[in-house]
Amino acid sequence: MLGRSILSPYRALLAVCFGLVVLAGGASAVAAESEFTLVIRNHRFEPAELKVPSGKRVKLIVHNQDSKAEEFESHSLNREKVIPPGAKATLFIGPLKPGRYPFVGEFNEATAKGVVVAE
Fold first, then answer.
1. 106, 107, 110, 113 alpha-carbon torsion, rounded to 10°
2. Which CATH number fits domain 35-118: 2.60.40.420, 3.30.420.40, 3.50.30.50, 2.40.50.100?
3. Is the pTM for the entire model greater than 0.85?
4. Which residues, in sequence order, are CB contacts of 48 under 8 Å at separation 6+?
5. How many Cα atoms within 13 Å fall on the side-chain side of residue 56?
6. DSSP conformation class of 67
7. The dihedral of CA 79, 83, 47, 56: what is its sign?
8. pLDDT tens digits for 52-111?
């Protein structure tokens, strides 16, 4: 009887730790679902239209595959970031209301255009 009373708090602690590990794993899966990538190639954004979930904060990775720097700029998203050639930049956007949020590559505005669509 004495052995059970001593082990009981340890079992409870083990159960709590296991629960936290499961929750952390679930959080990682959710974080992975909230990550989106834009590529800058030939002075254009790919995809030019990026759909993201509305009402959620998302991680946007912008990968500049061009040989010159580009500036991601969006007044509606309130974001501006210069991305060196070959580099990646991480931006967090949202939570967004449903709608369209245009962005441009300021150094090549004639061709580098896109829109984030929150649905």
1. -50
2. 2.60.40.420
3. no
4. 113, 114, 115
5. 16
6. S
7. negative
8. 999 999 999 999 999 999 999 999 999 999 999 999 999 999 999 999 999 999 999 999
